[in-house]
Amino acid sequence: MPLSLIGIGTFINYAKGDLGKEHLQNQIQGGLNFSSNLDNFFVAVPTIEMYAANVLHIKSENTLGDQTKYLLVSGIVTLGVTELLKQTFNEERPDKSDNQSFPSGHTSIAFATAAVLYYEYKDSNKFLAFSGVAFATTTAVFRVLNNKHFTSDVLVGAGVGIAITQLAYNFKPLKNWHPFKSKKRTVFMAPMYRDNAIGIASIIRF
Q: What is the pTM of this model?
């Protein structure tokens, strides 16, 4: 799936005519004049869900410490790759506010954390597992409706986030690394949005 999303998004990004990103954006906007900051909240929901599920003692694939490990690794790598791609392609946003359009950072981190939620709860609670994808998709839709991103930006962002989380969960050395094993250590992290940039806020108590 992630490669398909990246492939389709890349095609739309460079296509001309009816399949091009500008035409699709014009069709979506069409005098819509939509404006909402909810995408800055939706991006954090999958992470909030994961920690809430732990409080409610819903069975997960890994311990809270290892969940946080995967969340941190996936989130940091996703943000790094996304920023590298933004700087490399230097694509202008549809609202022409800057040249940081491709791919969408909100969408990439939303799908990276949603994928962590999916991997942790796909066998015990499918509704919870897929709910993160719903919020990540809503984040992507709002980024397009807010005229901050083209459809191609959010498709590639989603693919990047999912792909990196998949790699993290299948990387054997990472499975055997338990940085938060101590019961005396409390860790919490969540995506954050500040000064027009998406990042990760972490609290680690020893």
A: 0.88
